[in-house]
Known about the structure:
CATH superfamily: Lipoprotein localisation LolA/LolB/LppX
Number of helices: 3
Helix content: 10-25%
Low-confidence stretches: 1-17
Distance between the termini: 31 Å
Number of domains: 1
Order of helices and strands: HEEEEEEHHEEEEE
Largest sheet: 11 strands, antiparallel
Mean pLDDT: 83
Radius of gyration: 17 Å
Strand content: over 45%
Structural class: alpha+beta
CATH architecture: Clam
Shape: globular
CATH topology: outer membrane lipoprotein receptor (LolB), chain A
Amino acid sequence: MSRVALIFILLMLSLGAGEMHIDFKETRYIDALNEKVTRSGFISFSNDSVKIYYAPPNEREVSLKDGQITIKSGGDVSVKEAKDEPNIAKTFTLFRALFEDDEQSLKKFFKVLEKSPKEVVLKSISSSNPISKLTYELKEGNITKLDFLGQNGDRITIDVVQKR
């Protein structure tokens, strides 16, 4: 093995390559009910999986690994194929693309309307996408806030509390 390859592998291992943990606070604004719901949790990424966890009182965990989506809620566990839950699978793909700065994957869902060092505004390229518009705020190149506008008028705001 070449010296450069060995150094690269050691560097990636020391940085925890492929692993990321993001603590967040989410606020859902439900247009039809004129109501908002706030909850907190975390999103974690590894090389082969993505997990979203919501803290009590509405504890819930949704993960995607090996083409299967596992949902744990209230003591119940449900396992489904990702192809049977396309919106959940797309959400995981979207989160990974956003937090790993994967513009090619984002282009599968959105076109860029505005882009500055502090904010990016994306518009859905498909009416079948439940998200019509996505705005995210940046600080020093890192996402600090996401704002999703749904086709139905609902809005979800995610504030990044900590990224590790």
